[in-house]
């Protein structure tokens, strides 16, 4: 008999889980609260111009993720990125080859979503279980089901809300800590950053500055810059007005890099409320074979996209073995 499995969250973890389940013969429905897929591997538009607002590049330490990246590169969904950085910095931050999605980071997840049904703008509110299986309830009080098993592939603090009543899961999820990160996308009409394409940890406020248009496969429209604030500064300013945050971070960039006082043509700030993992779980995933529900995400193993991918695959395997 073919089993129906629900996956909540269409980020890298959810989609890698969904694609594993599909390859094992399950019918898979993925439910995503946003209008697009990819989660924190995101391509956002400022006006009509695409920027990578979340993850900036991928690295691969494990064979399984390296194989996936190789597939992406050979099918044109990703390419190697060799930004100009100062030689001291290269040693510090470029220990592994950097890859980016083409034409934007969200291409990274596209092949995983091809063979599964993805339902966007569907925010899951509650899960309930009867002897027939799991029912998924949405924000608008509609529901779908039954499903033989459920994979919850969302940030740990959000997963706690859905899995709070499952024995043992709250304790495990409570150990995980995630930090907010402000991302600001800036468009200028001409090249404004000096020679380097990437600057990291410039001050206590700035974690990352990158020339988005230096990535392969982009169509540069003037100078396109992505700025990420440090988690500490982002936490202090979590409730601030996004426009004020954009102004402040751009001001900090011009001060730190000694740029002339130029007014950007467009700027947009986005807060990733559960942006980066501060304290991870230390296990690949959590799964209850008794209840047939589990959870995955970058926060299980670390803080990188590759951790999300591995966690999703691990949970997919555990679900298949339990059905
Ligand atoms: C600013 C920033 C920079 C980063 N830079 C890098 C980098 O350079 N390299 C790197 O490897 N990693 C980087 N990361 C980390 C990387 O983006 C993550 O590790 C990875 O994308 C996490 O994937 P995930 O599937 O676990 O979670 P997510 O991508 O968060 O996916 C979870 C999905 O679930 C959805 N969701 C949540 N709640 C619900 C609900 N109730 N119902 C339905 N859907 C729901 C969300 O909308 C989201 O799409 C960065 C992250 C940020 C924020």
What features would you highlight for this structure?
323 residues, alpha+beta, FAD/NAD(P)-binding domain, Polyamine Oxidase, Chain A, domain 2, 2 domains, six-stranded mixed beta sheet, five-stranded antiparallel beta sheet, 29% helix, binds flavin-adenine dinucleotide
Question: What would you note in describing this structure?
Answer:
The chain is an alpha+beta fold and about 325 residues long. The chain has 2 domains: about 1-35 and about 120-175 and about 280-323, FAD/NAD(P)-binding domain (3-Layer(bba) Sandwich); about 40-105 and about 175-280, Alpha-Beta Complex (Polyamine Oxidase, Chain A, domain 2). The chain has 10 helices and 18 strands. The chain has a 6-stranded mixed sheet. A hairpin with a 4-residue loop joins β17 (about 285-290) and β18 (about 295). The termini are close together. About 50% of the residues are buried. The mean pLDDT is about 95.
């Amino acid at each position: 008999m073919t089993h129906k499995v629900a996956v909540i969250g269409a980020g890298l973890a959810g989609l890698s889980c969904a694609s594993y389940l599909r390859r094992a013969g399950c019918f898979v429905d993925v439910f995503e609260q946003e209008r697009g897929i990819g989660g924190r591997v995101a391509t956002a538009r400022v006006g009509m111009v695409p920027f990578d607002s979340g993850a900036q590049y991928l690295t691969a330490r494990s064979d399984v993720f390296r194989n996936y990246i190789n597939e992406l590169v050979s099918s044109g969904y990703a390419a190697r990125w060799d930004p100009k950085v100062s030689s001291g910095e290269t040693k510090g931050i470029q220990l592994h080859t950097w890859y980016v999605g083409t034409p934007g980071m969200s291409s990274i997840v596209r092949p995983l979503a091809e063979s599964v049904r993805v339902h966007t703008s569907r925010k899951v509110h509650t899960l309930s279980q009867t002897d027939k299986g799991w029912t998924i309830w949405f924000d608008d009080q509609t529901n779908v089901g039954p499903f033989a098993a459920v994979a919850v592939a969302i940030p740990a603090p959000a997963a706690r809300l859905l899995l709070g009543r499952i024995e043992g899961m709250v304790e495990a999820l409570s150990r995980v800590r995630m930090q907010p990160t402000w991302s600001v996308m800036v468009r200028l009409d001409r090249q404004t950053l000096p020679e380097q394409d990437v600057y990291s940890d410039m001050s206590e406020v700035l974690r990352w500055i990158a020339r988005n248009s230096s990535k392969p496969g982009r169509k540069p429209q003037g100078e396109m810059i992505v700025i990420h604030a440090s988690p500490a500064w982002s936490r202090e300013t979590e409730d601030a007005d996004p426009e004020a945050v954009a102004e402040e971070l751009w001001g900090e960039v011009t001060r730190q890099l000694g740029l002339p006082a130029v007014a950007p043509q467009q700027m947009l700030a986005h807060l990733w409320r559960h942006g980066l993992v501060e304290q991870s779980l230390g296990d690949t995933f959590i799964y209850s074979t008794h209840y047939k529900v589990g959870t995955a995400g970058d926060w299980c193993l670390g803080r990188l996209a590759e951790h999300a991918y591995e966690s999703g695959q691990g949970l997919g395997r555990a679900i298949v073995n339990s059905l």
